[in-house]
TrEMBL record:
It comes from Roridomyces roridus. Transmembrane segments: none annotated. SUPFAM superfamilies: Acetyl-CoA synthetase-like (SSF56801). Residues 43-418 form the AMP-dependent synthetase/ligase domain. GO terms for molecular function: CoA-ligase activity. PANTHER family: BCDNA.GH02901, LONG-CHAIN-FATTY-ACID--COA LIGASE. This is Phenylacetyl-CoA ligase. It holds the Pfam family AMP-binding. It comes from the Eukaryota. Residues 468-555 form the AMP-binding enzyme C-terminal domain.
Length: 576
C-alpha cells in the first residue's frame, strides 16, 4: 500500500489495562485508580417495575452463589458456552459474571428470535445451557429439542406474575448456591485475558449470515477504560454539575443487554462510573417516559428510532423530562433534523453520537468531552487507544479528509469470528478491523461515516444480513431468484425490501390472471414473517422484477438494486 495517514486518538491518555483479569474480577474485585467511589447507599441495579435496588455487596453475593450452582449442578467450567436468551433482567449481569467466574463463555441471544434463529445460534456456539426469560420459554424449549439439548439444561429468570413452568429458576439457584461450597474461581495468567474468550456475540459482519464474534475479557475491560479516559472519569475537569458521568447518577437500561451497545456501554461502563442502572425488560415508548420520571433518570443510551419518537410523539408533552442531563445515540446514524430537534427538546442536556461495532467491542468514537453537543453527522472523536486509517478503493491509504473504508486497530478489538476462518480473514487483518463503512476523518480528529460499503442493513440499530433473508426467500415455491436491499425509513433508518423473480409456475399463474399477483406478494411477506424476528420482516415490501442483475461469476450486483430502492419511499410506521 502507498503511504497514507494513520490517525490516533487525541482525547486522553489510556491507562494501563490489566491483562490477567476476567470481566467480573475487574467489575467486582479489582481496585482501579480511575474508578469513582460508590457510596454504600447508591444502588448497583434497580428493577424498573418494583423499584427494588440491589447494592454492590448483594451483586457480588448473587454472582458467587450462581457460580457455585452452575459449577455444582450443571458442571459449567472452562470454555463451556452458556446462551442467555432473555430480555433485560436485574440478574442478567450476575448470571453472566457467574459463568465467567468459572471460565465459561456467554453467548447473548435476542429473546424474540424464532425457533430456527435460536437453534442456529445454539449449534454455532455448541451451547450447553440456556438461561431464558419466561415469555421466551416456548421458543427456548422448541430450539433445545431441535438442537438435542435436554430440557433440564434450561434455567429461567424469575419474573413476578410470569409462569416458569417446572423449570429451575435463577432465584432457586441463588438460594441453593448460597449453601454450596465455593466453586474454584478461574484465574488468568498475565497476558491471558487478551485471548481468553468471554463473549460470543452475534454480528453479520460486512456480508453474509450472522457470525459469532469471539470477544476476550481484555477487550471489554479495555473499552471501559478507554471510555473512562476519554470522559475524564474521576477528575474535576469541570464543575460537578457539568461533569458527564458522576457517581449517583441514574441511567435507564432500555437498550437490550444481548446487544453489544447495551451490554458494554449501558451496563458495564456506567456501573464502572458509580452510577445506578434501572433495568427495563423491554422497550415500550410511553412506559419508558414513565420510568424516566419515576426513577429520576439522568442518563439515556438510545438508538435513532427512540430519538425519533422523543421528537415526534405527541405524548412526550405529558412528561417532565427536565432531569435528563445526558443522551448518547448510537448503533446507527441520526439525521441532522432529528439531532436538532433533540437539542431543542433537551436544551440543558449533553447530547451526541458515537460509533462502534460488535467486532470492536464496542465504542470507537464519541463526541468530545469538552463539547456539550456533538456535531450533527459526526460520529465523534476517536477514544484513547484507537488508531484509524482510511482504505481507498484502489488499495492505498487515504490522508486526512479523504474518503474510503474506515478500519480500526484498538485494544478492544475482538479476536475473530468463531469457527469461521473465511470471514475472519476478510474482516480481521493484522490487528485491524475492516468496518465495511465508508467515512473520513477530519484534521480536527472527528470521524464521519458517509455511506455503507457493506451489504448489511441497520434496522432500528439491529443488523440484518440480506443473504439470510435471500436464503429464506428462495425456499418459497413462488420465488425463482431474490435480492434484498435496504430502503430508507424515517423511523427505522432503513427496512428490508425484496426484489423477487417469480418462479415459472407463479409467473404463468399471474400471466393468466393479474389478480393473483397481490396474494403471491402477501404470501412471500408472510413467509419471512413466520420465520424471522420482527426487525427482519420485509417492511419495505416486495418488488417483482424480470431478473436480478449479476456479475458473470454469478455475484449479485446489489448496488444497482440499492440505487433503485432509494427511489422507493414507504411511510414510516412507528410502533410503541
Amino acid at each position: 500500500m502507498a503511504p497514507g495517514d494513520i490517525l490516533s486518538a487525541s482525547s486522553g491518555v489510556l491507562p494501563p489495562i490489566p491483562d490477567n483479569l476476567t470481566i467480573p474480577q475487574f467489575q467486582l474485585d479489582h481496585t482501579e485508580p480511575t474508578r469513582p467511589h460508590r457510596d454504600a447507599g447508591i444502588p448497583y441495579l434497580v428493577d424498573d417495575a418494583t423499584g427494588k435496588g440491589i447494592g454492590f455487596a448483594e451483586a457480588r453475593e448473587r454472582t458467587q452463589a450462581l457460580a457455585n450452582a452452575f459449577s455444582s449442578l450443571y458442571k459449567i467450567g472452562n470454555d463451556d458456552v452458556v446462551l442467555i436468551f432473555s430480555r433485560n433482567h436485574v440478574d442478567y449481569p450476575f448470571a453472566l459474571w457467574a459463568v465467567h467466574r468459572l471460565g465459561g463463555v456467554i453467548s447473548p441471544a435476542n429473546p424474540d428470535y424464532s425457533r430456527g434463529e435460536l437453534e442456529f445460534q445454539l449449534r454455532a456456539t455448541k451451547a450447553s445451557l440456556i438461561i431464558t426469560y419466561p415469555d421466551a420459554l416456548d421458543t427456548a424449549t422448541a430450539a433445545a429439542k431441535a438442537y438435542g439439548l435436554p430440557l433440564d439444561r434450561i434455567v429461567v429468570f424469575s419474573v413476578a406474575g410470569m409462569s416458569t413452568g417446572n423449570f429451575v429458576t435463577i432465584d432457586t439457584l441463588v438460594k441453593r448456591g448460597s449453601g454450596l461450597k465455593k466453586a474454584p474461581e478461574f484465574k488468568l495468567k498475565p497476558g491471558e485475558a487478551k485471548t481468553k474468550v468471554a463473549l460470543l456475540s452475534f454480528s453479520s459482519g460486512t456480508t453474509g449470515t450472522p457470525k459469532a464474534v469471539a470477544i476476550p475479557h481484555f477487550a471489554v475491560i479495555a473499552n471501559i477504560l478507554q471510555l473512562a479516559a476519554h470522559s475524564k472519569i474521576n477528575t474535576n475537569y469541570v464543575d460537578w454539575k457539568d461533569q458527564r458521568y458522576r457517581p449517583g447518577d441514574r441511567a435507564l437500561a432500555v437498550l437490550p443487554f444481548y446487544h453489544i451497545y447495551g451490554l458494554v456501554v449501558n451496563l458495564h461502563f456506567l456501573l464502572y462510573c458509580g452510577m445506578s442502572i434501572v433495568v427495563v425488560p423491554k422497550f415500550h415508548f410511553e412506559a419508558m417516559l414513565k420510568s424516566i420520571v419515576r426513577h429520576r433518570i439522568t442518563h439515556l443510551m438510545l438508538v435513532p428510532p427512540q430519538a425519533v419518537l422523543l421528537c415526534k410523539h405527541p405524548v412526550v408533552k405529558n412528561y417532565d423530562l427536565s432531569g435528563v442531563r445526558y443522551i448518547m445515540i448510537g448503533a446507527a446514524p441520526l439525521s441532522d433534523e432529528v439531532n436538532q430537534q433533540m437539542f431543542a427538546l433537551f436544551p440543558d442536556a449533553q447530547i451526541g453520537q458515537g460509533y462502534g461495532m460488535t467486532e470492536t467491542s464496542t465504542v470507537i468514537s464519541i463526541w468530545p468531552i469538552e463539547s456539550k453537543r456533538g456535531i450533527s453527522g459526526s460520529a465523534g472523536q476517536l477514544i484513547p487507544g484507537v488508531v484509524a486509517r482510511i482504505l481507498k478503493p484502489d488499495g492505498t491509504l487515504g490522508k486526512v479528509g479523504e474518503v474510503g473504508e474506515v478500519t480500526f486497530k484498538a485494544p478492544s478489538n475482538a479476536l475473530r469470528y468463531y469457527n469461521n476462518e473465511k470471514a475472519t480473514k476478510e474482516t480481521f487483518i493484522d490487528g485491524w478491523v475492516r468496518t465495511g463503512d465508508e467515512g473520513t476523518i477530519t484534521a480536527d480528529g472527528l470521524l464521519y461515516i458517509t455511506d455503507r460499503i457493506k451489504e448489511i442493513m441497520k434496522v432500528r440499530g439491529f443488523q440484518v444480513a440480506p443473504a439470510e433473508l435471500e436464503g429464506a426467500l428462495l425456499d418459497h415455491a413462488d420465488v425463482s431468484d431474490a435480492c434484498v436491499v435496504g430502503i430508507p425509513d424515517d423511523y427505522s433508518g432503513e427496512v428490508p425490501l425484496a426484489f423477487i423473480v417469480l418462479s415459472a409456475d407463479a409467473a404463468a399463474r399471474v400471466a393468466s390472471d393479474l389478480n393473483r399477483l397481490e396474494p403471491i406478494r402477501a404470501g412471500i411477506i408472510k413467509h419471512i414473517a413466520d420465520q424471522k424476528i420482527a426487525y427482519k420482516h420485509l417492511a419495505g415490501g416486495v418488488e417483482f422484477v424480470e431478473s436480478i442483475p449479476k456479475t458473470p461469476s454469478g455475484k449479485l450486483l446489489r448496488r444497482f438494486l440499492r440505487d433503485k430502492a432509494k427511489e422507493i419511499k414507504r411511510p414510516a410506521k412507528a410502533k410503541l
